[in-house]
Fold each of these.
Amino acid sequence: MASSSSSGLTFKLHPLVIVNISDHYTRVKSQTNPPPLTSTSATVNGVEHQQQAPRVYGCVIGVQRGRTVEIFNSFELLYDPSTHSLDRPFLEKKQELYKKVFPHFYILGWYSTGSDAQESDMHIHKALMDINESPLYVLLNPTINPAQKDLPVTIYESELHVIDGIPQLIFVRSSYTIETVEAERISVDHVAHLKPSDGGSAATQLAAHLTGIHSAIKMLNSRIRVLHHYLVGMQKGDIPCENSLLRQVSSLLRRLPAIESEKFQDDFLMEYNDTLLITYLAMFTNCSSTMNELVDKFNTAYDRHSRRGGRTAFI
Amino acid sequence: MEGLVTQIQGLSGTASDVLSLQNLLKQADDSLHAESTRLPPFLDQLDPSKHSLGYLYFLEACTAGPVTREQASSFVLTIARFISSCVAEQIRLAPDKFISVCKRFKDQVLLLEEPLRGVAPMLTAIRKLQLSSEHLTALHPEFLLLCLLSKCYKTALSILEEDIFEVDQPRDLFLYCYYGGMISIGQKQFRKALELLHNVVTAPMSTVNAIAVEAFKKYILVSLIHHGQFPTNLPKYASSGAQRNLKTLCQPYVELASSYSNGKIADLEMYVEANKDKFESDNNLGLVKQAVSSMYKRNIQRLTQTYLTLSLQDIANRVQLNSPKEAEMHVLQMIKDGEIYATINQKDGMVRFLEDPEQYKTCEMIERIDSSIQRLMTVSKKLNVMDELMSCDPLYLAKAGRERQRFDFDDFDNVPQRYNI
């Protein structure tokens, strides 16, 4: 598998496809029964059962205009392990249905999950070649790697290369960009963050809002830290000075708020104090209610002459 | 005896050796007690900083019998030296012996009528015995008693600042809070005194004890001085025994509180005169007088709620003081203590009452609130832990199960109950 394609096509991927594939994988993984082994029986068997991550398969559809290939949507397909191919009749039925609604969409290729493309995938790839002469293979890596910065999605094309004198089809990686429309962005965001759709109670809304702000601030903090580290290195002389970067940093700094007056301080501190006081009050209420319950329990348990009779229900 | 000494000297090295030494000493304890008069010379062979456990056993056996005045002073020296140089880990293996040694130390110091000599060693002893600063040992009330008798209140305050979460014996808590309350009153820290006395009065007790009764009397008086009012009902976390009986046992004080709330100084003073001997017999006359003088403060504070400006003469009339000069003195004192906000215009003798100038705009306020929030979070965590412990308590579950309302047959499940046949 070579590293870059030479076909000259530009690929645009919509986030809906990514969400679809990941949802498919998650569903299948959570629906397969977990291995019933405990740690003791594993040692008895002597064989370590590795939980094989299930692979899911499907088709991607979209539009090809000139040199630009835009992948809009995807649907799922069953993989037949005996024939090592995808379910063909189902695929054709689905293709007809989609044609009725989206006449411009073509089957552009197929998707699967895994960490890397495998040799057996070439079978499926070749089978699709009669629908589309150069199908795409979209691969999603479901393992969560916290160090990784970009999306674990790769798009492969097939190219005919001469290896050891034999012309062979191999997968080559292609670069892609993410493209989205406003409507799609809102709905994908909604689904991805699992926001309570009916508004939820005030507490869950507040919690969701604050979590969002917290993660945003955390990301901002880590990026500023990276910049700071870089600048310190430049100052010490470990890293060669790069003037364009320094200009960008200084323009960023100049955009910071420039209010430093007395009135601003006063108002800001007053508002800060108000928020702190409210938090304090909330904690107080929380503590008082815990203490109240504790005292009630204590009195019931240990006080010899406590009030007999049924406890009234709290309304 | 000599064999024991050599064993102590040999086995005081590592922790496991010390444990085996402890077993030996426990077995030899009776023989030590039997020969208590012969023991003092052996003490010199042992080094308190290395052989603390052995020294402790010997010391405890030495001091077990009745002690004369001459012996007392030498023992006081030995024990004080021992306390300052002993090793905390070894001491904690035999806490009751240590506690009894320290208690005898206190008795001897009192016998010599020099409580001041005992204060510093007792403080060191507490620090060595405590498992953590939240732990109340039996030595705390002894220490506070020595501080009270020797009138060095400031040292006591450092101990009183710590929050207590674990208590060994309930009696320790009662005595500790009572003495602590008295020390705080002596230092005029009425808020702390109120808190400590409140703890005594509302502590769980199955029967009312004398400490709680005395504490309740002081509690009423301090509450009048600090708050200007006395809540007639104890909070619901006070034991039911306390709620019913304390008020009847402290009748004169309760009546004092009710006449205080009427606001008339003349009536109050008459009442105090009438019951003077009762207050004196409880050693509370000083507090009662302070309560009476705090009445003036209360009345002046009430004036701030009605008037914006007032002349000194008017203040004197309303508060039933004798002259504007006295009124000015009172108002000045209150402004200095931060109890009211006012300015006195000396030219025409007018007093202007002001609002609280705190604007909550400063960084110091932020730090204060932030530290309070942090403290509250730790308290909340502890409370949650206690609440969970309580919910699993079998006594509680038994009673809660019995009192539940039963809605349908499924509710009759197996909660342990007693059958009253």
Amino acid sequence: MARDLLLVVEIPGSQPMAPAQRCPLCRQTFFCGRGHVYSRKHQRQLKEALERLLPRVEAARKAIRAAQVERYVPEHERCCWCLCCGCEVREHLSHGNLTVLHGGLLEHLASPEHKKATNKFWWENKAEVQMKEKFLVTPQDYARFKKSLVKGLDSYEEKEDEVIKEMAAQIREVEQSRQEMVRSVLEPQAVPDPEEGSSAPRSWKGMNSQVASSSQQPSNLDLPPAPELDWMETGQSLTFIGHQDIPGVGNIHSGATPPWMIQDEYTSGNQQIGPSYEEFLKEKEKQKLKKLPPDRVGANFDHSSRTSAGWLPSFGRVWNNGRRWQSRYMFNARSPTYPPNLLFGDVTLLPVNPLFPFRHQFKNEAAAMKKQSHREKS
Amino acid sequence: MSFLLPKLTSKKEVDQAIKSTAEKVLVLRFGRDEDPVCLQLDDVLSKTSSDLSKMAAIYLVDVDQTPVYTQYFDISYIPSTVFFFNGQHMKVDYGSPDHTKFVGSFKTKQDFIDLIEVIYRGAMRGKLIVQSPIDPKNIPKYDLLYQDI
């Protein structure tokens, strides 16, 4: 009985110690085990975090119905932190010059991984179940968003077209007004005004007759320079050296070579410093060759060696039973009756050279040739 | 198709091709341009030549124009394809009687590509004879005669 009492009695006021756990939401370590999520502090932190996230999500939801397309501005690179997935999500989707407002966030909210992460987050942090729906976007909503996006793109294009048309109309207006001004200046030429008696209107008239004789297009260019010429001639104080143009030789304006680039003084020999382009390419090839395995077939084959007309590559023939180079030797040394006609006796398949019956004893052709020449000498 | 691949017309040109092709498999197709099986083979070769350009160099040789090589390589059936690497002839065991050359056409482009790759890898390792990766069903069958026996 006493033992039973001991078992029943608990020390009030203290919880059993759980292993240390970190709550990412509160950014704190706690030792209460699963009790932490129900504490007031945690719930408060949770509410604040969700309140921070909610306006962004609501703005994105509004965009489902009426997707807006705007011109790209660097501010559109802004990212939003998704609480449930624990990752940064680009808020607006941009492609080229255009941006879809809230496109990125909507895409993320509609994705299945986000849904899973949200469910997990809600379960672990014991948040209010009704709130969860607000942070999710169903695939149907996403489809609706895409439709409105298409409409949004169309309306954006229309807007752009309108803007361009307006600008064109404005330009036309300005052009019109200028033309009118020119015409109005030309007309009073026929009416001589005795009240204006200085040289200025005379020069105007002279210029006007010039304008009337020439075509109308450069007329608006002629108007400003004429009065300016008058002013320049009266302010003469610079000395005149003479026209610096020699007909044959070019100058800086015609794009001739500058005097310091002309090479006909000392350096007439080898102008180049360093290896030429071909040598550089060859060096690159050699570098590549070094990387190849050294025991590959024909590694020491001299590609550039001169060969006589009788050169044949080393070819291992079908019926031979000796070394590879022997096939070439046999081919070269074949008698006029090659290939042998076996139907009439002669058991041996290979044409044996009576001078050299045991050629296979030599490891390579060089040794065989040496022996042959030695034999020929003796 | 045969006009897409470079042709060699004399012994000297073949010699030069064999000697100058460096660190790449040299493929010499011996045959005649008009022969139907040759046309098939040429089609496969020309379609794969650009993909294999870093591993192989492909040339066409007319058997009538280079009698020396026709005899030397003992070419009795056309088309025959001979493989070289750095001037050294590569033998391939196809499962057929003749290991020195490939007689006939390839069934698919992939067969040819696999074969070139196997030859290249074998050559890099220093092997003078390699095992063909082509399915024996796809290798053309022929009888190798020695002087009408």
Amino acid sequence: MASRYDRAITVFSPDGHLFQVEYAQEAVKKGSTAVGIRGTDIVVLGVEKKSVAKLQDERTVRKICALDDHVCMAFAGLTADARVVINRSRVECQSYKLTVEDPVTVEYITRFIATLKQKYTQSNGRRPFGISALIVGFDDDGIPRLYQTDPSGTYHAWKANAIGRSAKTVREFLEKNYTEDAIANDSEAIKLAIRALLEVVQSGGKNIELAIIRRNQPLKMFSAKEIELQVTEIEKEKEEAEKKKSKKTT
Amino acid sequence: MAATFFGEVVKAPCRAGTEDQEEEEEGRRETAEDREVRRQLARKREVRLFRRQTKTSLDVSLLEKYPCSKFIIAIGNNAVAFLSSFVMNSGVWEEVGCAKLWNEWCRTTDTTHLSPAEAFCVFYHLKSSPSVFGSCARKNMQVTLLTCRHVTDYKTSESISSLHSPFLKALKTQNFKEPPCCSLLEQPNIVHDLPAAVLSYCQVWKIPAVLYLCYTDVMKLDLITVEAFKPILSSRSLKGLVKNIPQSTEILKKLMTTNEIQSNIYT
């Protein structure tokens, strides 16, 4: 049945599916994992870096991009589609600032991206964007925000979420470990993001990229050394926790 | 003429009788030629068995010289990676022969000189225990098949987003008495291609056989998919064959990095 209703985006199947949109969600799962966490005074974006070919310039393979000084996003899925969406969002951020003389709110730019994606699910001869995005930032009111969009054009606010490959495993980890203590301060929130990624990233810290935004501060990308430091601390804490456990049992 | 959703123009079937007849005759003339071409292609189909090093051909009767108790087949790159890093890494395996085939759906155009680098199926046997291998001896033989399939082929009444892929499902013949290492494949799911052919053969000839099918969302070589086969290591057929699991995991990781195809489409 699916084969008759999945060629054209503008055709519903008899049981109400838009197969092209669902297939676009499969394309998202082919991208590497990205995780976003909303803390009390910080928002964190962590991504699994794909290993780069020897002759390739590492700086041109980026999953985390700034949309404005106070908003940034991470995506999973088709690289080219992401580039188009990011370019349009950046233009929209500046256009909004010039017109209204205020920076965009995170919710506004998320809604813009989601509307753009939805247009492509209802257009003749076009296919949906094959990306999901995690958009983070601080509004003027100082409240941290995390939103997620998907190829169907829906968007929701989250406390913590993951997209891309193994997103389900990471989300389950977050559901268990996202507590008030875990986001009590900035370093704890950063550690939670790294721990969530380490659940699914194969080769440890060197394949993780991390970005944070603190209130009234611009986007900060972590260097490889800083990430290694965090990973070493996490591993130490793990060992200590295991030692305590074994002491309790004996 | 009719316009479709994309605005392309499609020829609608004509209700005028005469036009139809002319078209049919034309069609018939072409079909005879097509049939001849197809017949010639079919004649070129071949299956060859030979030794890779010496390139000498191997008679099927030679393979019958190796009686075996366990026959393990891995189909697809993830299953092959699992077998080569976990099973073939422990003990010395000797290559006995390889099977190549060509039919009109193959992409290589050269029918006579198939290069050894494109082996479709390679046979190995365990030097230290020659009873592990084989092809034709039917008594006391147990067959284990490993393969992968995309999770979108898995039919279930649950929502697909609740599935924890990759996951393992088993399908066995009537004579296979051992309990499988994972849950059985439920209806209405079916098995396709080579694994189905092997299982049918085993069922007909009353050979105990089991297929371990891994449903995954990554069809290319992937560490998580290969590790999904790990529960099979506790089965009776593979127990004696796997010695060093941590070393095997290291070898698997190396295999991944060497085989990683750089694709920049998805980030």
